Amino acid sequence: MLSVSWTTSCRTGHGGGSKSHTHLGDEEGVLVLEGAPTIWLDADPYTLGPGDSATFSCQRPHRWLNDSDRTCRALWIITPAVY
User: Fold this and answer.
1) Which residues face 18 on adjacent strands?
2) SS3 (DSSP) at 19
3) How is the beta sheet containing 44-47 ordered, strand by strand?
4) How would you label 66-75 residue by residue, b for 16+ Cβ within 10 Å and e otherwise?
5) Which residues contact 22 (CB under 8 A, 6 or more apart)?
6) Other C-beta atoms lying within 10 Å of the C-beta of residue 10
7) Per-residue pLDDT tens digits for 14-68
8) Could you give the 3-state DSSP secondary structure of residue 1?
9) Does residue 33 contact residue 50 with C-beta atoms inside 8 Å?
10) What's residue 83's pLDDT?
């Protein structure tokens, strides 16, 4: 099965949008490289740190925000490759 992956780098106060969303694909994963972003799965917030990861269904409402005081870098993976 093919996947699509990309890295993000964002400053404090930035992220993937203010509203939760769903999208094509089966599973999404994130590996935090630097910083401490907060990821909301449904309405539940989870703050991750460097080396932390999360995996969840693309159909589960989700969003993320770098609300830490440092730049956040993360690797994102979606399978199957739909983009």
Assistant:
1) none
2) coil
3) 44-47, 38-41, 62-65
4) bbbeeebbbe
5) 58, 59, 60, 61, 62
6) 17
7) 998 889 999 888 999 999 999 999 999 999 999 999 999 999 999 999 999 999 9
8) coil
9) yes
10) 63
Read off φ and ψ for residue 67, nearest 5 degrees: -100, 15
> Under a CB-based contact definition with an 8 Å cutoff, are residues 80 and 51 in contact?
no
CB 28 within 8 A of CB 76: yes
**How many residues appear in the chain?**
83
Q: Which residue's structure tokens are 């964002």?
A: 10
Q: Can you state the percent helix, strand and coil of the chain, rounding each to 5?
A: 0, 50, 50
Is residue 2 predicted with pLDDT exceeding 90?
Answer: no
Q: What angle do CA 10, 2, 39 make, to 5 degrees?
A: 30
